[in-house]
């Protein structure tokens, strides 16, 4: 246990020091992956611990990103209308864009909006005990609806192109390496805080209730708990994480479009967690980083192969390694401990 | 105007029913989430494309007849593929619905990419048979033959499926296994065999749906993802385990979305219909029609 805690410290220290040993290009990639790892922690919470499979996390991620992007866009337009609005003939800034000229409002909205949407969806489905695959499919339908809406309302959202061409944040240039490093650190800190918070949450009493809900929801109900409250809470929390991740993502990547919140990105998020190990928060982080590294390498060099590989990976992970990388690691550790114990026993036999 | 909208709604509903009817078997009766269902449709659509090419090249005199051959052919090929899928993958995941969802999603990616490698990424157009051009004029509205054909095809499929499930031994075995698997097994039904062929039938119906979709426009490797979510919504709204529910769900969604679309826009119609579905599930969480049961889970 002590060993493991040291491992976590070491991991986050290595991430934090990355600007000193990675090139600018690789650092920007890593920063992007860490944002996605934040989403993965949230998915591990709801899927690995509570047994809710959400295929809609792309939407929460996207909403967070759009909120931040609206602020960046307004700052980049310097008091004028954003360029895409002029192209589609909008004369005046729509009312819901106005508050986003204040960065604090944008940041608050990037967390609050996804949380609210998730709370609404999960309350109305979990209250009626709609669960399992039905919830997964409904969350996927939310993705379809929101993506259609964002593409359709081009004059408000920038349509398929999304929001891009930002210049500054809080007056600092987004393209300067220093800003990018600061943003990277901010991402690392957010990831570490969210990881610690999620660990606290799952190691306590609440975590036990969540696992109990996953394993036997009705028994939990008979014991006097109300699973709906717990499920809505944890689902909204993971949506909030995704919102934070989206806001950080758009700051570093400088682009958000409906394509990045669609069905396929949403389900890919689930795959990162499945590969890393759904029952393990650290596994989810590692899974997100490993999978995205593999993706950025393979999809550039062998774009045809990548999709086949991705598809095969879904099948292989589900059939043969349902516990993912974390499961492999755990069984290795178990083997070592067993071997160690075996030696001790032999040693004892020798003595007697 | 009203008749126009009514027909459009019925036509939209018939398309929804066509893509959902296979799911009503694999998802509704067997409880398997097959995300590759859309890709089985794609397989049917490409089968039709290949058949059409074949007829156009080798038998130009009877080129219009290709569609008659394409329907059973796409059923067969999609059914075979579904059968293989059940044997190799899905049977290991019956007790893990969420995992089967992910694994079949993986299959759908593989199938999509394979189609892209064989036929190329751009959409291909299937020339509809000439005997389906034109339409009937009735009450001042035009009813295109293609849409009428799809409507009739769907009704025929529902009719024969109903006969099959209710009146034949094989169909009754499917029902028995759905209702009580262990009891059916005790009475000597080979449940695994039943699983395999029910899944094959559901997949084959997806193939037929894909074949019919070629009448409506060009087809591409991603045609399945376009329809899959709608198809699942139909089955969920209709209620799992009842074919009649799927029928009602499909025509309900089709009619409502057409009328909403008429008074707003296509985008808003999608949003409003989804909100209506969620609202409806508040009232009836298990859909329009459901199998009454006393069990808790």
Automatic annotation (TrEMBL), chain A:
Positions of transmembrane segments: 6-22, 29-49, 100-126, 133-152, 181-198, 232-257, 269-293, 305-322
Subcellular location: Cell membrane
A Pfam family the protein falls into: BPD_transp_2
InterPro entries per UniProt: ABC_transp_permease, ABC_transptr_urea_perm_UrtC, LivM-like
Membrane topology: Multi-pass membrane protein
Keywords, in A-Z order: Cell membrane, Membrane, Transmembrane, Transmembrane helix
PANTHER family given in the database record: HIGH-AFFINITY BRANCHED-CHAIN AMINO ACID TRANSPORT SYSTEM PERMEASE (PTHR30482), SLR1201 PROTEIN (PTHR30482:SF4)
Protein name according to UniProt: Urea ABC transporter permease subunit UrtC
Species name: Geobacillus icigianus
Upper taxonomic lineage: Bacteria, Bacillati, Bacillota, Bacilli, Bacillales
UniProtKB/TrEMBL annotation, chain B:
Keywords per UniProt: Amino-acid transport, Cell membrane, Membrane, Transmembrane, Transmembrane helix, Transport
Chief location bin: membrane
Record has Cell membrane as a keyword: yes
Membrane topology field: Multi-pass membrane protein
Keyword Cell wall biogenesis/degradation included in the entry's annotation: no
Membrane spanning residue stretches: 12-33, 63-85, 97-119, 148-165, 197-219, 231-255, 267-283
Pfam families in the record: BPD_transp_2
Cellular localisation: Cell membrane
Protein family (similarity comment): Belongs to the binding-protein-dependent transport system permease family. LivHM subfamily.
Matches recorded under PANTHER family: ABC TRANSPORTER PERMEASE PROTEIN, BRANCHED-CHAIN AMINO ACID TRANSPORT SYSTEM PERMEASE PROTEIN LIVH
Protein name as catalogued: High-affinity branched-chain amino acid transport system permease protein LivH
């Amino acid at each position: 246990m002590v060993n493991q805690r040291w491992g976590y410290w070491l991991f986050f220290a290595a991430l934090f020091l990355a600007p000193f040993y990675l090139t600018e290009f690789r650092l920007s990639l890593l920063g992007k992956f860490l944002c996605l790892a934040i989403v993965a922690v949230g998915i591990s919470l709801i899927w690995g611990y509570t047994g809710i499979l959400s295929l809609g996390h792309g939407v929460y991620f996207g909403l967070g990103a759009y909120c931040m992007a609206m602020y960046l866009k307004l700052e980049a337009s310097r008091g004028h209308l954003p360029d895409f609005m002029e192209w589609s003939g909008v004369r005046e800034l729509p009312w819901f864009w106005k508050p986003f000229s204040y960065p604090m409002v944008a940041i608050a909205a990037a967390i609050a909006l996804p949380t609210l949407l998730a709370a609404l969806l999960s309350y109305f489905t979990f209250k009626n005990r709609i669960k399992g695959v039905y919830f997964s499919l409904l969350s996927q339908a939310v993705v379809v609806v929101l993506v259609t809406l964002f593409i359709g309302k081009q004059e408000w959202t920038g349509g398929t192109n999304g929001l891009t061409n930002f210049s500054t944040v809080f007056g600092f240039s987004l393209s300067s390496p220093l800003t990018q490093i600061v943003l990277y650190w901010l991402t690392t800190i957010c990831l570490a805080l969210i990881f610690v918070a999620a660990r606290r949450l799952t190691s306590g009493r609440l975590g036990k209730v969540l696992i109990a809900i996953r394993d036997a929801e009705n028994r939990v109900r008979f014991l006097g708990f109300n699973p709906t409250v717990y499920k809505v809470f944890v689902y909204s929390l993971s949506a909030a994480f995704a919102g934070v991740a989206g806001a950080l993502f758009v700051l570093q990547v400088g682009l958000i479009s409906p394509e990045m919140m669609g069905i396929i990105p949403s389900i890919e998020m689930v795959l990162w967690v499945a590969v890393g190990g759904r029952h393990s928060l650290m596994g989810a982080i590692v899974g997100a980083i490993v999978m995205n590294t593999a993706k950025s390498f393979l999809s550039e060099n062998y774009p045809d192969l990548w999709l086949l590989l991705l598809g095969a990976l879904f099948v292989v992970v589900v059939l043969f390694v349902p516990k993912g990388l974390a499961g492999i690691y755990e069984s290795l550790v178990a083997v070592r401990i067993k071997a160690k114990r075996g030696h001790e026993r032999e040693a004892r036999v020798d003595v007697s | 105007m009203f008749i126009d909208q009514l027909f459009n709604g019925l036509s939209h509903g018939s398309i929804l029913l066509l893509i959902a009817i296979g799911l009503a078997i694999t998802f509704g009766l067997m409880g398997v989430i097959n995300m590759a269902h859309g890709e089985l449709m794609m397989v049917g659509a490409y089968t039709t494309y290949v058949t059409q090419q074949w007829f156009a090249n080798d038998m130009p005199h009877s080129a219009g007849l290709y569609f008659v051959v394409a329907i059973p052919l796409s059923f067969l090929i999609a059914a075979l593929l579904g059968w293989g899928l059940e044997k190799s993958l899905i049977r290991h995941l019956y007790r893990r619905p969420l995992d089967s969802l992910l694994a079949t999603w993986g299959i759908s990616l593989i199938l999509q990419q394979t189609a892209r490698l064989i036929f190329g990424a751009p959409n291909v157009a299937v020339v509809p048979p000439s005997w389906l051009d034109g339409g009937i004029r009735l009450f001042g509205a035009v009813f295109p033959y293609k849409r009428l054909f799809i409507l009739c095809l769907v009704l025929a499929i529902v009719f024969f499926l109903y006969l099959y499930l209710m009146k034949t031994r094989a169909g009754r075995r499917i029902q028995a296994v759905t209702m009580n698997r262990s009891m059916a097994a005790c009475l000597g039904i080979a449940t695994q065999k039943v699983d395999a062929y029910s899944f094959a039938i559901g997949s084959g119906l997806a193939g037929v749906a894909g074949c019919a979709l070629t009448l409506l426009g060009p087809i591409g490797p991603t045609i399945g993802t376009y329809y899959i979510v709608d198809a699942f919504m139909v089955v969920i709204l209709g209620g799992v385990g009842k074919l009649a529910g799927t029928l009602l769900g499909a025509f309900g969604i089709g009619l409502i979305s057409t009328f909403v679309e008429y008074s707003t826009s296509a985008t808003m119609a999608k949003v409003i219909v989804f909100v209506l579905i969620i609202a409806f599930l508040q009232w009836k969480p298990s859909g329009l029609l459901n199998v009454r049961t006393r069990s808790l889970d």
